[in-house]
Amino acid sequence: MNGPIASPPLHLRVNGREQQLAVPRDAPLLGVLRNDLQLNGPKYGCGLGECGACLVLIDGRPARSCSVPVGGVEGRSVTTLEGLSAPDGTLHPVQQAFIECQAAQCGYCLNGMIVSTVALLAREPHPSDAQVRDALSHNLCRCGTHLEILHAVQRAAELMTERRGPLTPALSPEGRASKSTPSPPGRGLG
Asked: Could you give the angle at which helices 93-100 and 146-163 cross, rounded to 10 degrees?
């Protein structure tokens, strides 16, 4: 009697490195990133694609990795929080801004917020407060650091302007800061 036929390995690019994985194609990308590739940037929050803790960039666009089957990203580029910093360890401007603005309280939502911010600044280097709120509206934060998070996004836009060049290919080199107001605790920033 013959056993089950093994699936051919999957090929994808994670944080700039080619990966060949022997995993079920319907496995959630989040589990593969955390368990098989030992990347802890994307967090398991709800497992339903609702909270944003598991956000990664797929071909430069934010995606909830708990809801994406790994087979759906074959041949594509996946970037996690770990892939944002430069090879020499220099933090990405968004990471630096979140630290400077002390945007973390418990920090559980922060990785998804940073990934969302990277995607926002790549498409809109001069975001308005409304655009920031919209971009982060699907990232749930229950700790109440919303004002600091909004300031961190605007600070990241400032840093992008100061550096006059992206640290990752998806980013635009320009941005601008503005003032913002807090959101009520227990919700996304939308």
From this structure: 140
Q: Give me the CATH topology for the region 85-190.
A: DNA polymerase; domain 1 (1.10.150)
Question: How would you write the pLDDT of the chain (190 residues) with one tens digit per residue?
Answer: 555 556 788 999 999 999 999 999 999 999 999 999 999 999 998 888 889 999 999 999 999 999 999 999 999 999 999 999 999 999 999 999 999 998 887 878 889 999 999 999 999 998 999 999 999 988 887 776 678 889 999 999 999 888 754 444 333 333 322 233 333 333 445 4
Residue type for 60, please? G
Our CA dihedral for 167, 103, 181, 150, rounded to 10 degrees, sits at: 20
Domain locations in the chain? Answer: 10-83, 85-190
- At the top level of CATH, the class of 10-83 is alpha beta
Closest-CA residue to 37 (of 48, 22, 53, 26)? 22
